[in-house]
């Protein structure tokens, strides 16, 4: 986003929304539509016509430019309620529009600087996962400049991408990698990517050492979320094994969850001193549904710098009964390593019986985030960021609650991921926020892009990397 456009973006209700581009399309017997693209999603409070400046009534809005709904301006008593204001990237009208005015709500703008940070041609050239952890444990927005950030990645390509053709050359895939970023800006000179080596070949940064991890031939770890508490990294990888019977791109099976803990210093986790432990965090619920934890971690502590700390670390997981649902456990921060001390939300309170855990949200993605926000109309709210529909969906959506366990508001879709429109088996998935890398009152969020076709991976080196958007409040 260039500086000129940045300064013209709406900051408050009633500010004009700049149009990135516009064009005309036939609307059948009704005439011609004029279509406007903002280049980002904004809360839309009013559309004014170019003839008399009065509100333009005949208009439709869209998040993706394909599915359209009639625009209805919020009533005066609703104009300051974000849930009552329509959000759109595209508008089409049958009369020329002179101005689009922002309402109170959330904007979702592509953040090209953060996206470019992970568009690399040598060494680390693509991955998914991308959780972020401040080494000093401070998750508060605007504080990343005071620490280094540890990124956790899943399956990763190591090799070279041809500058001219975008083809992968001399490339191998390993199952997890790390990166360290100095400060809070997406500076390519300030980030270093980390993995192991086995002889001359790249190898995963963290490899199975536990009995359960070693019990399955060819097993490896997919890194879920983690946190820095008391000077140690704690994360909860999934034990993954090969499953040749799965469809292309999904030939794997989950066998459990482990805990990995390691001391932290200014150079990141001291993996030579890591501790790995099998857990009972992958199980069948009392109703028979597959359940596991570690998909998101929220340290709600004074150390983390959150607005209303209660001293607990909240660990979110998924329960699948045909639809992915969100479940949550918590533990005092000082007891995080002792999973037998965790308690689980059963819908009315906390219990040691994990099998009775109850969903707090439905239709979530396999990776997500729950983040406290300070400032604006989201002040002291806990914001859930997900990808609606999992790997078959392409909407980044948010929901808010007054507590880490909900109840969460209905989802508000904010960003339509356009990458799947390119074909090649491409899909987008696993949106989540990175609170400490965000500006105060905002959330920097990412989503992953992948393809079911290994041929496409080899031919198109730009597919397999995260994309970023900035979610901010317009008041």
What do these coordinates show?
By secondary structure, the protein is mainly beta. It has 4 helices and 37 strands. The strands form 8 sheets. Strands 17, 18, 19, 20, 21, 22 and 23 form a 7-stranded antiparallel β-sheet that branches. Strands 24, 25, 26, 27, 28, 29 and 30 form a 7-stranded antiparallel β-sheet that branches. Strands 1, 2, 3, 4, 5 and 6 form a 6-stranded antiparallel β-sheet that branches. β18 and β19 form a beta hairpin. The two termini are 22 Å apart. The mean pLDDT is 94.
Features:
seven-stranded antiparallel sheet; 475 residues; mainly beta; 46% strand; Tachylectin-2, Chain A; 2 domains
| Helicity, as a percent range | under 10%
CATH class of the largest domain: Mainly Beta
Give the low-pLDDT segments.
none
Tell me the CATH topology of the largest domain: Tachylectin-2, Chain A
The tally of beta strands, per DSSP, is 37
């Amino acid at each position: 986003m260039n500086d000129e456009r940045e300064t013209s973006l709406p900051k408050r209700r009633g500010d004009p929304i700049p149009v990135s581009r516009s064009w005309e399309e036939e609307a059948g017997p009704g005439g011609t539509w004029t279509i406007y693209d903002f280049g980002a999603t904004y809360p839309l409070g009013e559309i004014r016509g170019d003839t008399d400046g009065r509100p333009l009534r005949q208009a439709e809005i869209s998040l993706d430019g394909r599915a359209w709904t009639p625009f209805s301006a919020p009533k005066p008593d609703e104009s300051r309620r974000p849930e009552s204001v329509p959000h759109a990237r595209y508008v089409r009208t049958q009369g020329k529009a002179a101005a689009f005015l922002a309402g109170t709500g959330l904007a979702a703008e592509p953040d090209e600087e953060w996206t470019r940070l992970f568009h690399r041609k040598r060494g680390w050239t693509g991955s998914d996962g991308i959780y972020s952890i401040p080494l000093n444990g401070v998750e508060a927005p605007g504080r990343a400049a005071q620490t280094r950030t540890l990124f956790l990645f899943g399956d990763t390509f190591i090799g070279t991408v041809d500058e001219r053709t975008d083809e992968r050359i001399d490339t191998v895939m390993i199952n997890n990698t790390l990166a360290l970023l100095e400060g809070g800006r997406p500076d390519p000179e300030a980030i270093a990517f980390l993995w192991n080596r086995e002889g001359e070949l790249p190898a995963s940064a963290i490899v199975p050492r536990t009995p359960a991890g070693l019990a399955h031939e060819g097993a490896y770890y997919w890194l879920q979320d983690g946190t820095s508490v008391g000077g140690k990294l704690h994360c909860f990888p999934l034990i993954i094994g090969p499953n040749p019977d799965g469809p292309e791109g999904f030939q794997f099976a989950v066998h459990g969850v482990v805990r990995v803990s390691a001391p932290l210093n200014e150079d990141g986790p001291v993996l030579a001193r890591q501790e790995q432990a099998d857990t009972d965090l992958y199980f069948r619920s009392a109703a028979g549904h597959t359940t596991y934890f570690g998909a998101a971690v929220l340290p709600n502590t004074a150390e983390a710098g959150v607005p209303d700390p209660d001293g607990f670390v909240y660990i979110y997981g998924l329960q699948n009964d045909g639809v992915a649902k969100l479940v949550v456990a918590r533990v005092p921060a000082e007891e995080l390593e002792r999973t037998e001390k965790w308690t689980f939300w059963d819908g009315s309170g906390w219990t040691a019986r994990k099998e009775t855990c109850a969903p707090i949200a439905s239709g979530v993605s396999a990776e997500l985030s729950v983040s406290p926000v300070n400032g604006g109309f989201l002040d002291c709210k806990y914001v859930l960021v997900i990808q609606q529909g999992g790997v078959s969906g392409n909407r980044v959506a948010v929901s808010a609650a007054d507590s880490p366990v909900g109840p969460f508001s209905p989802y508000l879709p904010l960003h339509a991921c356009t990458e799947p429109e390119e074909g090649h088996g491409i899909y987008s998935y696993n949106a989540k926020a990175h609170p400490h890398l965000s500006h105060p009152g905002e959330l920097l969020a990412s989503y992953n892009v992948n393809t079911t076709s290994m041929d496409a991976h080899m031919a198109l080196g730009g597919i397999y990397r995260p994309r970023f958007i900035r979610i901010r409040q317009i008041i």
